[in-house]
Amino acid sequence: MSAPTGQSLHPGLNLGEEHGDDHLEAETSVFGFWVFMMSDLVTFGMFFAVFATTVPLACCPGPKELFDFGSIAWQTAFLLLSSVTSGMAVLTMKQEHGGRGACTKKLVFWLLLTVLLGCGFLYREISDFISMAAAGGPPTRSGYLSALWSLVGLHGLHVTGGIIWCLVIVVGVLVRGVDRRWKLALLRWAVFWHFLDVVWIFIFSFVFLGGLL
Amino acid sequence: MFEALFGRLTWDSIILVQEFEDPNLNTFITAGAAAMLPVGGALVVALLFWMKWWKPLFEWLTSVDHKKIGTMYIIFAVIMLFRGVVEGILMRVNQAVGLNGGFLSSDHFNQLFTTHGTNMIFFVAMPFLIGLINIVVPLQIGARDVAFPKLNQISLGLTAVGGFLIMISLLVGEFSTGGWTGYPSFTGRLINPGVGPDYYILSIGIAGLGSTLTGVNFAVTIYKMRTAGMSFMRMPLFTWTALCTSILLIFAMPPLTACCLMLGLDRYLGFHFFTNDMGGNLMNYINLFWMFGHPEVYILILPAFGVMSEIAATFSGKRLYGYVGLVAATMCIAVLSFMVWLHHFFTMGQSTTVNAAFGIATLLIAIPTGVKIYDWLATLWGGRVRFTTPMLYLCGFFVLFAIGGLSGVILANPTLDYQLHNSLFLVAHFHNVIIPGTLFGVLAGIYYWFPKIYGFRLLDGYSRITAFLWAFGFILAFLPLYQVGMMGMTRRTVAYENPALVPWMVVSGIGALFLGLAFTFVLLTLWRSVVNRKKLMVPFGDPWDGRTLEWWTPAPTPEWNFAVLPKVDGRDAFTEAKAKGTAYQPIEKYEDIEMPANTYYGLIIAALGSGLGFGLVWYMWWLAIICFLGCIVTVITYAFLPERKKIIPAAEVREIDEAWRRAARESRGVTRDDECNEANQGLARPDIITNP
Amino acid sequence: MKKSKELHHYLTGFALAAVLTIIPFTLVATVGGARSYIVLVFCAILQVIVHFRFFLHLSFRGQQKEDLQLVLFTGFILFLMIGGTIWVLGDLYTRM
Fold first, then answer.
1. Domain B53-599+644-674: which CATH number of 1.20.210.10, 1.10.10.650, 1.20.120.140, 1.10.10.10
2. Are C5 and C43 part of one and the same domain?
3. Among C77, C87, C96, beta carbon nearest to B354
4. Residue A80 distance to chain C (closest CA, Å)
5. CA closest to C83 among chain B residues
């Protein structure tokens, strides 16, 4: 981001000077959320650590029997695209809502598109879980499966939370307009959503693709 | 129908019913303790009605003021300390008469050491320290409040939920018997399907979330809300230790959240994280738990070190020696604390390479701690040392904590640890660092900062007696345990067979009684000080000739802390201002001050969280689901409610502040000779300054 | 113009991330084997950096430096924790 030095106050896209005090207020709010994301990252890290040290048992289905390559590819595509659409949403808010609020239709469009992609991701993930269970790989079958389901499941729960949060923001900007509160909420949500994609990179690389190698 | 409503809760779950149906000494003791809950609760409610204190109570419970929240943390900690001390006394007295079996059943004893540890760490030590940090840090950095006041209130609420769960387990059901560490597969579903481990997981899991949020809050506060001119290297040491503690909270609590979640999944859904079969591995739990557990003990000690820094400087009338070294040592301790966790399980079968690596790392951590102790000693050297109560705690700390630290260095050696692990030597070590370290730091900090917040000092005589009782009680209760541990006595055992241990156990039991007396004196000191507060008033706000910004406000400190946020241009800015005579000069311009309004947010989350925890423990799924959804609805609702703020008009601020400054300019103040008598109104007259 | 520059930033990030995703997927689908694993690791780390740089706007300048330092510190802690876990549990595994 080629913002001149001193104008970027916090991680993620900054509102910039046209947004006046909103830009200054965002510093503490978004930085605080960023710090919280670090702790969340460590929680995920712990589930990764346990996953990494649990080996599939000979008796029970393992990665090669359970993972659906195509489905994982779709999930990855959905999530990556949704990262871009979420970025578009924040960009729209920054460029068109400085000063007096403007039409919120474009912003809502990008947000709903992100929700749609997120739902697509979840749909495939839940289908995968169901077929894994049907194929004899429920989480109660082995330590490896417990670790797999909980790691991927934890991520899925976070995605669900992010979708609900996004919908709340959509209602918020429609009902209350794009005021400071909802701008800051959107900035924080966007950081969250990007984080989910970052964690997914590790999941699809080490859990799924790594398991299939 | 009953099962759906009450889950696995039955009449027999209530201890009072058990005592009625099958009375024995153990149920009697537990029932007696449990009865204190409804009786105490009823007394409190009666008191509230009698004194018409409902409105002030709700004013406090809905407050987002860091000073009030900090006070509530400390009150909570004192109540839980009462339970913790009683549990400790029960155990020590049982072992004093414990040759071939004491008066407690093994199940009761096991619950006692579990609740004692869990309670003391999560619901006494942490709330004490977080309470002090809450009260002091915003004042020390020249801010009006923390970065996220509502979140602060929520953290308190979540901690209270954990406290609620561990307390209600006295009355309904039972607590875990797996120690504060709760290792599976003992705490797994197969061996312990009862409510105990579920109470354990939920109480520390939920409280842990609150602590993580506190860490985030204070890290952001210290990073972003320091007053003009206060660079990092001008912050007081207590703030530095608070920052490092916050970093530890942010990074060390997640492993606990993770392993509680995993154990919960094992117990509730039949997962195989830590089971003995089907690919489970209990070492994963132990590894994760101690990855939390080691930084946790540094969370417990760093703020106490911060208090010691403040006290060493203030009560020698001298600048803190080696500021940069102390900051560097604090940061080293914080980072190193993430590299040593394996020393808590040297004996679990790792190769010597792994053990040796972690052993060496553990030895290294002693170095920055040593640096700190030498720096404090050097601060005292050449100063005009005043043996006030905090200084007594510091001196006690120097001698006693050093012993504890050294015993830690002994345990850091894997070879020696193989002999001493899980013996009473270990128990002696950690009490030796927690009591003279954390507890002394907390008590010294409370004595030190109490006048700032409440406007009157604590009684000097009573405080000194309290300090001596804690030190004496500690020495009698815990130093013998080193010997007994080396003689081979195992920890966490209700009885023992070696008669040679008896004299040591008796001494230890007497020491425990002295610790109980010391706790009583804490309450007594508080009570007598409140009764005599008119003679102890320090309205000018600087009773100790303090050096840092928190002393630059009247006492009790107004809600907004500073009428005008100060600008600093060095460390110990207040001392410099006093030396130059500009401390109480009039200010020209006052502005309206905006403060966050009271809110029910934290209270609602606390209530719902308690319901969620209780419902999950007893399998009352309807309760758990309603409370969980309730939390989500609450969060969403508050996102839509307008943000309310209070505006304090400039005129009101001006009136209070000008009166204070004028009175300070017109008064003479006292020298340090009159520090502990009635003449001290909280204004410091320039004294012999040895090294400003 | 700043507006289009910001947009290009996102699109560049997307393109890079897409490439860094397609490579490991293709490798696993076709070649497989231990060497693919190393490429996998590389692509993952690079893609994370792409996300941090282009989507989360971290850089070495100004305030962003402090935010970056926080990420690096977290990465260091994660390395200690995850690496430590793998070392310890691995060591125990070989001795069982």
1. 1.20.210.10
2. yes
3. C87
4. 8
5. B339
According to CATH, the superfamily of the domain at A18-53+69-212 is Cytochrome c oxidase, subunit III, four-helix bundle (1.20.120.80)
**Contact (CB<8Å) A54/B271:** no
- Burial class from Cβ neighbours inside 10 Å (0-12, 13-18, 19+) for residue B492 reads middle
Task: Band the pLDDT of A103: cuts 50, 70, 90.
Answer: low
Q: Which amino acid is at B288?
A: L
Three-class SS of B422-447: CEHHHHHHHHHHHHHHHHHHHHHHHH
Closest CA to B448 of B303, B257, B612: B303
How far from each other are the two terminal CA atoms of chain B, in whole angstroms?
74
Taking an 8 Å cut-off on Cβ atoms, the answer to whether A144 and B279 are in contact is yes
pLDDT above 60: residue B418:
yes
- The verdict on C37 and C68 lying in the same domain is no
Quick check: pTM over 0.90? Answer: yes
Q: Give the tokens for residue B67.
A: 């000073």
- Predicted complex ipTM: 0.94
A2 interfaces chain C, CB cutoff of 8 Å: yes
Interatomic CA distance for residues B5 and B95, integer angstroms: 42
- Rounded to a whole number of angstroms, the distance from the CA of A83 to the nearest CA of chain C is 8
Tell me if chain C has a CB within 8 Å of the CB of B342.
Answer: yes
pLDDT of A3 > 50? The answer is: no
Whether residues C4 and C51 share a domain: the answer is: yes
Assess whether pLDDT exceeds 60 at residue B689: no
For chain B, the domains span 53-599+644-674
Which chain B positions have a beta carbon within 8 Å of A31's beta carbon? 220, 223-224
CB atoms within 10 A of CB B131: 25
User: Which of B269, B271, B639 lies nearest to residue A168, judging by beta carbons?
Assistant: B639
Tokens of B491: 């920890």
Chains A & C: contacts with CB separation below 8 Å = 128
Q: DSSP for B18-37?
A: HHHHS--HHHHHHHHHHHHH
